[in-house]
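Handoff note, outgoing to incoming analyst
You'll be picking up this chain. Sequence as last confirmed:
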Amino acid sequence: MRVEELEKIAQAMVAPGKGILAADESTGTITKRFDAINIESTEESRRAYRELLFTTKGANEFISGVILYDETVRQECDGVTFPRVLESQGILPGIKVDKGAKSLPGTLDETVTEGLDGLRERFSEYFELGCRFAKWRAVIRIGEDLPSRYAVDANAHALARYAALSQEAGLVPIVEPEVLMDGSHSIEQCEEVTGYVLDVVFSTLKFHRVHLEGICLKPNMVISGLESSRQATVKEVAQATVRCLLAHVPEVVPGIAFLSGGQNDILATRHLNAMNQIGGFPWELSFSYGRALQAPVLESWQGRAANVPTSQKAYLHRAKCNGAARSGGYCESWDSVSA
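Most recent structure output, in case you need it:
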């Protein structure tokens, strides 16, 4: 493990004014998004879409890294692999390595993320392909008598095993314990469960000798369930999230890059902005958004080459908005500005 290099990469991932683009959708997931805009999902259409994102001029001012998928990491733009295309712009290439959440035996609709088998060898290959960080997502549900300690422990164990192997290979692990928005739970319940999950995850990371100064945490925001009768305000979400993180995340962690978790692009930016306006925390508060950066891009693109310039403008606009939210400098009036 090259500790100094891991710390350097982790700090670059959460550099002030920048965040991470999550472009690691599986083939099944991106096919669903293409279906929504009547685009056939083929290897070439997926490649063309990713090329649109990765070649947007000026994005490196607001984007520190991009999470890739196994197919994408091997694709090219004008004979140059995507990791090298990103690297040439000063953007760190990363890779999603988990195999998805699978049913956890003995539970009621709970899951554990799989993909540890052969991971050491895959990490070695991904490092050679140019990747410098990785991502593994664990999924935790809130419900009646959920989450179970069994499910939280199983997912924390997998996250820690992955993180240790990632650091061994010289890649900074993004540790992503996502408490889902699905459900009718209150923001108070979300805060309680999120804090509990974070405690278990960090305890397990330490037990597995993961170097906390060389990771990036990717948690959910503390937010009301999608079906809750009372949706928390932007201010309430910001206050609850910051309070939860201060109580449960070690100060040595370089940065926290939130997932959007199903929030729309504008709300995800407003929440991040409100948190950074609070300030006073020991780590960088950043973003690692997928849909919240890409939704307006897909809507603009529609699979047509003629729409690429407009789509790149839309992507750059959302990246700029979130870059400003990193310092609490985002203005809601920008929401009405055409990309």
